Amino acid sequence: MSRRLQRLWSALEQVPDLAGVPVEWRSLLGDDHEAVARFLLPTRRIAGSVKSTSPGRTCIHEIRKHKGEYLEVCPDGCETATRSRDEVTVHRLDVAGFAREIAASLGLEALPAEAVPNVAGVWKIGDYAPFAKYRFPVCLTFAGEPEILGSVVDGLAARSEPFILIAPTRSALGQAAADLLKRTDSLFLSLDELVGDGDGRLSLLDGHTAAGVFAEFHAAHVPQPKAEGGTAFFPTPPGVQWTDLAIVFKDAHTVSVSLGGIQRVLNYTAMGMANRKNRSPNKQWELLYELAQRNDLLRQSRKDPSKYVALEDLTNEHAANKQRGNRRDAHRKQKQLLAEALRQFFKIDGDPFILSGKGGWSTRFILTAEEGSL
Ligand SMILES: [Zn+2]
Asked: How far is the centre of ligand 1, averaged over its atoms, from the C-alpha of 197 (Å)?
């Protein structure tokens, strides 16, 4: 359950510099105050003046320090009041803490909020990263004026990558900014429509999911991983490495792949290793299969040492003799092409192969074949 916040969002667009004394915040936020009080942190600054919070009054009251006390003095006839230090201390929205909860509520990879260089009034708060290598910046602004929001959108669009811009409401989104967002295939999210108070934490309002919020953006920018048919890529979660991967051959054309908690059964075509002309497995797939067999045969080698030696030599460059030189070079080339094909498909950086003893090499990932599949 998440409670809709009625006054917070527009208040954030109205408060200059996101700063005010506690009574100003309370009066602006009303019933929402409690839900966000944790973000209103005291600064070192004492307010010089405050707006009258008496009903119907618009006068500005001066804050005067007098004999160790703070006095709120009205030029217009309200009664002078004594205030505590906290009451006249400017409290500012903790943008970092606020942004962290917003990012979490939207299922984003949160980053410490930092000002976007050369674009005033906007923070980068995280990344939308559905898969490895697919990463889009997510920015937060509190701009309440169309001109300011317009210049934020201009500045972000100039960086020529699609982005996600979050603002408290849509009220400052003018037509020009909306058009530019559309032209750059970027996404605008309005917090009042999506986020509420979920028991002391900002969280998505009922009926919304992070996947739903980003569905259209995702479809526009991220190719669909396919299990069968055309070449695509694996839905690799961000931050995984080659050592997290396991490939198990089920038969000569099919593997079971496990990576970062995701499992798929794939054939060579789905992994982008089909021969373009006749759709049969290409040389890279054949090498992958050969390596899987070798791994399996390594276990069997105690029973049948001759098989072990033959297949070990296939990849053991140090041990290879001159007569096998050509074959060895062919394998080295195929190994490079296979490494490239695996990087393309899994979107993981670095070499999937590692040098092993005696000048040979092996895979950094688990590669094997099911019993009886050879
Ligand atoms: Zn007054």
From this structure: 34
